[in-house]
Prior knowledge:
The protein is mostly helical. It contains three helices and two strands.
Amino acid sequence: MLFFARGMERLVRIPRCVVANTRGPQVASMNMIAEYLEKAIDFERLAVIEKDSALKDGLLKQAAAYRKLAGEKAERLNLTFPTGPPQSN
């Protein structure tokens, strides 16, 4: 599961069981954000290996839509995180 908080530069993997043991509506919303980001990453990975440019564009649009949903949800919770996919050096 991906987890992030204000001021962090990167997403950090935290086992789902750790987050699941914490209660409260904000945690449920953070889980939703993490799931949106996981879906975005899945679509981005599929786009990397796709040869059909139309399908690749569709996959990247799906990824962007999931990142947008995550960003909107994070904004409502006053959280910040990187808005795009990680950039390799």
